[in-house]
Each structure stands twice: as structure tokens, then as C-alpha cells.
Design a protein that fits this description.
The chain is mainly α and 70 residues long. It has one domain. It is built from three helices and no strands. The longest helix has 29 residues. The radius of gyration is 14 Å and the shape is elongated. The two termini are 18 Å apart. 11% of the residues are buried. The mean pLDDT is 85.
Length: 70
Amino acid sequence: MDIFDQAQERDELFRDNALQEHFAKRRSRLRGSDGICADCGEPIPKKRLKANPQATRCVECQEKSERKGY
């Protein structure tokens, strides 16, 4: 794999992650209730929301999402 293939692969991962985040935020807004994980539908812990008020995923789903991207 040459440097151009590596760059293309990284670009695709970045794009996929950005799209996933976009649609997760959109799903969260469509549900009409803040504090609900966009992926699993469970409540996002209050401590997480206090630390990151824009969080759209619970800790577990966020970790899964990040592992997929790397």
C-alpha cells in the first residue's frame, strides 16, 4: 500500500466518522428529547452531559463509535 492509498483510506475513515456524527445528532434532534443516546436510545448519564452538554451518545456507544473509526 503506497502513501496515496493510505491517505485515501484515512480520508474515507474521517468522512465516515463525520457522517456518523452528523446523523447521530440529527437522530437525537428528531427524537425531540435531549439526554437520550442517538445510537441505543438509553439516557445519557447526567455526569456525561454536565461534562459535555452536546453529547449525543452514552459513553459505551461513543467508545464503540470511536473504536470503529480507528
